[in-house]
Amino acid sequence: RREPLALINLKKKNEETGEEELASRLDHCKAKATRHIFLIRHSQYNLDGRADKDRTLTPLGREQAELTGHRLASLGLKFDQIIHSSMTRATETTEIISKHLPGVKKISTDLLREGAPIEPDPPVSHWKPEAVQYYEDGARIEAAFRNFIHRADAKQEEDSYEIFVCHANVIRYIVCRALQFPPEGWLRMSLNNGSITHLVIRPNGRVALRALGDTGFMPPDKITRT
After folding, report:
1. pTM score of the predicted model
2. Where is the signal peptide (predicted)?
3. CATH topology of domain 32-222
């Protein structure tokens, strides 16, 4: 519902002529800029923690976050903001990455927390959450997609570069939705810790995937998927 035609009131008439100035009004609603979305999976964390606050990054995870931060800084882009999941492992990953990107504002959100987005097809035997979890988490993760993954606002004049630090399930679901692939296939993708996924959203709403789970900037002995 972000096509220009969906953003105007077709019943509204021009006061002087009594005719719709449809072309000019459509032009006013058209996006002009491209959005670059960098989806970062959090680094390796302590799997033995019972509560979220105990699931802190491991020493290797902190190294991974440093490498990811260095990679993002080396791109030479003017990042607009870092939006991150409020879970501990994502917050800690963000804090380390942000040291390499001084001045970039950080925003925490519950929408990007890890969860079960939709029942995978085909099903897997090693991961079977309760059915209710799909309804609870799925609605939230879909809300995250609709809230964050869209073409630029018509008022945005320059291209933007935004970082989202979150979780594998969230990123995989977002990629499927953004590319108009069946979202039930999200679990067929695998993402390394600290990996970079790059989506490009053009002014006309078309989406391209530039990178999926890239960790080519990490030494092989630093790469994990836990």
Report:
1. 0.91
2. none
3. Rossmann fold (3.40.50)
